[in-house]
Amino acid sequence: MRKIKSILIAVALLFIGSTAQSQVLISLLLGDKLNSDGLEFGLEGGFNWSGISHLEANTQLSSFNLGFYFDIRLKNQWNLYTGLLVKAKMGDDKLTANDLVFLEITPKAEEGTYSQKINYFVAPVLIKYNFKNRIYLEAGPQFSLMHKAWVEFNSEIDDRKTKIKDFNRDKINWFDAGLTIGTGYKLMAESGMTLGVKYYYGLANVYHGVSGTNNSSFFVKLNIPIGVAKSKEKTESK
Questions:
Q1: Structural contact between residues 14 and 23, judged by C-beta atoms closer than 8 angstroms
Q2: pLDDT tens track for 89-147
Q3: What is the tens place of the pLDDT at every residue in 1-26?
Q4: What is the DSSP-derived secondary structure letter of residue 170?
């Protein structure tokens, strides 16, 4: 019962203070309380490269993401992997003139590049199979809640940098859902870090009333368990 309470408190605090700094602090403080033989808790961080179908932009948007995860043992070599990326961005880069017309963005007078950026809270719910050689496969649905979106203009002329944001949150669906498949490798046999990759394809439309506008993203991630060693020491001392 105490473990369940600790998990609920940690999740509530992370939602209230949804910055990366508060997440790291809470994870470090509660990591050993959230880990057990059947549950691994920690931080997930990495990069992703995303695009939106229907847009003509041919350069993927790259961004950093950070969150926490729960790796729950089910039976034998099967696990349930879930959690929340509190810092995650999807979108598209190097938008074309047609993209700007579609997004109802008036081009700026000076030359520069445009990108669609959408901040999401991302929650995967994946079934994970662990092979004995420390490689794993995972697949399942992923759900996202949009909380901020804008078209960003960037220009650099004669050592003068310009950044302008045209917020277009009202044009974008607040909910996104799709399928994720991934693989990875546990760097240490017992409780070490895990390096992985995963691919996400959205099944919901990104823009209101425009079919065929789907998110897609390729993630490279590093999972760092928090407090596993301390939790293990407490269990062995009982």
A1: yes
A2: 999 999 999 999 999 999 998 999 999 999 999 999 999 999 999 999 999 999 999 99
A3: 444 444 444 444 444 444 445 545 55
A4: G
What's the distance, CA 30 to chain centroid?
A: 21
113, 119, 153, 171, 204 from 107: Cα distances, Å = 10, 23, 9, 18, 28
Q: What is the CATH number of domain 2-237?
A: 2.40.160.20
What residues have CB less than 8 Å from 71, skipping those under 6 apart? Answer: 39, 40, 41, 42, 79, 80, 81, 128, 223
Q: Which two tokens stand for residue 129?
A: 């199979």
Q: HSE, CB side, 13 Å, CA atoms: give it for residue 139.
A: 2
What pTM value is reported for the model? 0.82
Candidates 183, 196, 180; CA nearest to 141 is 180
Q: Which two tokens stand for residue 136?
A: 């794993």
